[in-house]
């Protein structure tokens, strides 16, 4: 059976052995560095490091290929929008102007600085997104909820997040089953139909999917209410795990990476690496 998108994928790897708290803290550190820096050297290091972690985790790229493809399309749109609305942003940041192609009488002239700036923006996506995907597919939702509660998040909110993550595969499964049922009734959803017809036929899937989702939500709510969920201020977690040696080493490594990255980024008072 095909792997569900953004669902937990169980593997025997060092990444899976880490506790949910460790992975959450490491992801927060990773995201902080990626958001703060525009230093190309730091971003390239983070990108290569994320590829290495992906390999260690034993998660296959094809298992998250659809999500990556969707993000690449969004990234392309974002880069086009940056160029359309701020085509000289790189020139303002780096203080020089090397024209590669003169377009539109100057404003939309393609400059080396703009390409370098947008290259860094792209690197930011390539740095954060794989790490986020890896965190989602290597962390059990119940353990993730326990991790959130352990760092101070209300267990009600943590449990809601865990339910949402668990529900993603269910929605995909229901969508596939309803789609197959509708196709068996003669509703064509293949590429043979025109796009407008396929979009119209999609309504025959979306409406039953929404109704079945609402029905499941009601069932889960009733079950939680009957079990007295939310009555006490605290709760225990079956999937919670204590820290091990590998967790401490990993956290220390990421803290060192945070300090070194921020030092490299801000040592000259500017978070933009300027090769010009």
Automatic annotation (TrEMBL):
<feature type="transmembrane region" description="Helical">
    <location>
        <begin position="248"/>
        <end position="266"/>
    </location>
</feature>
<keyword id="KW-1133">Transmembrane helix</keyword>
<dbReference type="Pfam" id="PF02361">
    <property type="entry name" value="CbiQ"/>
</dbReference>
<keyword id="KW-0472">Membrane</keyword>
<feature type="transmembrane region" description="Helical">
    <location>
        <begin position="66"/>
        <end position="85"/>
    </location>
</feature>
<protein>
    <submittedName>
        <fullName>Energy-coupling factor transporter transmembrane protein EcfT</fullName>
    </submittedName>
</protein>
<feature type="transmembrane region" description="Helical">
    <location>
        <begin position="27"/>
        <end position="54"/>
    </location>
</feature>
<dbReference type="InterPro" id="IPR003339">
    <property type="entry name" value="ABC/ECF_trnsptr_transmembrane"/>
</dbReference>
<feature type="transmembrane region" description="Helical">
    <location>
        <begin position="115"/>
        <end position="137"/>
    </location>
</feature>
<keyword id="KW-0812">Transmembrane</keyword>
